[in-house]
Amino acid sequence: MQYNQDKRALYDRWQKPGDVAKFRRINDVAKTKMSSRFVADDNTLECKSISLGYESTQATWLKPMGISSFSFRVYMNDIFLLSTVKEERGLDYPFQRAVSASLSIRF
User: Fold this and answer.
1) Model-level pTM?
2) Which of 23, 48, 57, 104 could disulfide-link to 71, CB 3.0 to 4.6 Å?
């Protein structure tokens, strides 16, 4: 009781005989014996980052505007994560995607 615990240990715990629960009763402070119960296969497929871009120095529309080169690039991070194990990023933080872009014009 004196240790910090996840709220699931309070609400999803064993409470009365016959309960099938993931967590022991809250006042059970007995040591947990070693077991493979806490081991999970981590099958993961993830896309961490992608960079797509376009660059041109010879496009016909560049010369009338006085542009010698043009480039545009999009960067994406943490696109997706598929896993058999839930990745914890704090208690309530979602999986966050980030997108950024750059534009370069030379005259």
Assistant:
1) 0.51
2) 104
